[in-house]
Automatic annotation (TrEMBL):
It comes from Camelus ferus. It is found in: Mitochondrion outer membrane. SUPFAM superfamilies: Phosphoglycerate mutase-like. Mitochondrial serine/threonine phosphatase that dephosphorylates various substrates and thus plays a role in different biological processes including cellular senescence or mitophagy. Modulates cellular senescence by regulating mitochondrial dynamics. Mechanistically, participates in mitochondrial fission through dephosphorylating DNM1L/DRP1. Additionally, dephosphorylates MFN2 in a stress-sensitive manner and consequently protects it from ubiquitination and degradation to promote mitochondrial network formation. It is an enzyme of class 3 (hydrolase). This is Serine/threonine-protein phosphatase PGAM5, mitochondrial. One of its GO terms (molecular function) is protein serine/threonine phosphatase activity. Gene3D superfamilies: Phosphoglycerate mutase-like. Its EC number is 3.1.3.16. The lineage of its organism: Eukaryota, Metazoa, Chordata, Craniata, Vertebrata. Its main location: mitochondrion. CDD domains: HP_PGM_like. InterPro entries: His_Pase_superF_clade-1 (IPR013078), His_PPase_superfam (IPR029033), Mito_Ser/Thr_phosphatase (IPR051021). Keywords: Hydrolase, Membrane, Mitochondrion, Mitochondrion outer membrane, Necrosis.
Length: 289
C-alpha cells in the first residue's frame, strides 16, 4: 500500500512538471504589452494551477520519457504486485547515455541577398576543416550527422563529413535559423516582427522536442550524435535542455564552427560539457559573424 501511495505522489509531481513545460512552450513568442522598457510579467494559465514548480525546480519528465509517465496505470489491475509494476517501468527505462554535439556553421557571406548565395567564406572553410579535425581527434564512434538545410550549414557539413567517413547524414528544415523566442533583455539592433517569433519559435521548439531527449529504451549503447545548425537554434536548445529561462538565449555567444556538448543521462539528467568551444582554433581563425 505504501509503495502504491508513493507512486501516486510521484505521478502528481510529474503532472505538475508537465504543466510547467507545456506552459513554457505556449508562452513562446508572446508579445510585450508595452514598450521595451516595461518588465515582462508572464502569468500561468488557469489550468496550470498551483502544480507549477517554482524557479530552479528540475522537472524529471521534461522530455516526456520518464518511465512512470509512460505506464498506463488505468490498465493495471486493482492490486498489482510490486514486481509487475517494476517490470513495466523497466520496459520504458532508458539504459544508454546520449552525447549531443551542436556545431555552429562556419563564417559565411552575410551580405548576399539570397539564402542560396550565403556560402562560406575562405575563412569559413578553414574553420570547418578545423572543426572536422577536432571532432575526428576525439576518437568517438559518431552515429549520425543531422544538419540544417540552409546553404551555410550544408557546406559546413560537407567539409566536416570528409573527416568523419562513413557517418550518415540527414538534412532537416527544423534546424534552420530563426527567432526562437523574444529575448529578455531585448537588444536594439535586432527586432524581428512579432509573427516571426510565432513561426520560427514553433519550429525550433519542435526541433528541440524531436532531437533533444533521453535515449530510447531499446538503445543499448551510448550514442554520439552531431547536429550542425545555427547560433540561435543552439542557444535556445541549451537553455531548454538545462531548464533555464528560454528568454535568456541571446545572453549566450557562439563562435563560428564552435562545438557545444550536451549529455543526456538515462535518468533524464542533462549536463553541459562544453559551450561554444573553439579552443582548437588559432586566434586568427576565430569569428562570430
Amino acid at each position: 500500500m505504501a509503495f502504491r501511495q508513493a507512486l501516486q505522489l510521484a505521478a502528481c509531481g510529474l503532472a505538475g512538471g508537465s504543466a510547467a513545460v507545456l506552459f513554457s512552450a505556449v508562452a513562446v513568442g508572446k508579445p510585450r504589452a508595452g514598450g521595451d522598457a516595461e518588465p515582462r510579467v508572464v502569468e500561468p494559465p488557469a489550468w496550470a494551477g498551483a502544480a507549477r514548480p517554482g524557479p530552479g525546480v528540475w522537472d524529471p519528465n521534461w522530455d516526456r520519457r520518464e518511465p512512470l509517465s509512460l505506464v498506463n496505470l488505468r490498465k493495471r489491475s486493482l492490486e498489482p504486485g510490486e514486481e509487475e509494476l517494476a517490470s513495466r517501468l523497466d520496459h520504458y527505462k532508458a539504459k544508454a547515455t546520449r552525447h549531443i554535439f551542436l556545431i555552429r556553421h562556419s563564417q559565411y557571406h552575410v551580405d548576399a541577398s539570397l539564402e542560396k548565395d550565403r556560402t562560406l567564406t575562405p575563412l569559413g572553410r578553414e574553420q570547418a576543416e578545423l572543426t572536422g579535425l577536432r571532432l575526428a581527434s576525439l576518437g568517438l564512434k559518431f552515429n549520425k550527422i543531422v544538419h540544417s538545410s540552409m546553404t551555410r550549414a550544408v557546406e559546413t557539413t560537407d567539409i566536416i563529413s570528409k573527416h568523419l567517413p562513413g557517418v550518415c547524414r540527414v538534412s532537416t528544415d527544423l534546424l534552420r535559423e530563426g527567432a526562437p523566442i523574444e529575448p529578455d533583455p531585448p537588444v536594439s539592433h535586432w527586432k524581428p516582427e512579432a509573427v516571426q517569433y510565432y513561426e520560427d519559435g514553433a519550429r525550433i521548439e519542435a526541433a528541440f522536442r524531436n532531437y533533444i531527449h533521453r535515449a530510447d529504451a531499446k538503445q543499448q549503447e551510448d550514442s554520439y550524435e552531431i547536429f550542425i545548425c545555427h547560433a540561435n537554434v543552439i542557444r535556445y536548445i541549451v537553455c531548454r535542455a538545462l531548464q533555464f529561462p528560454p528568454e535568456g538565449w541571446l545572453r549566450l555567444s557562439l563562435n563560428n564552427g564552435s562545438i557545444t556538448h550536451l549529455v543526456v543521462r538515462p535518468d533524464g539528467r542533462v549536463a553541459l560539457r562544453a559551450l561554444g568551444d573553439t579552443g582548437f582554433m588559432p586566434p586568427d581563425k576565430i569569428s562570430r559573424s
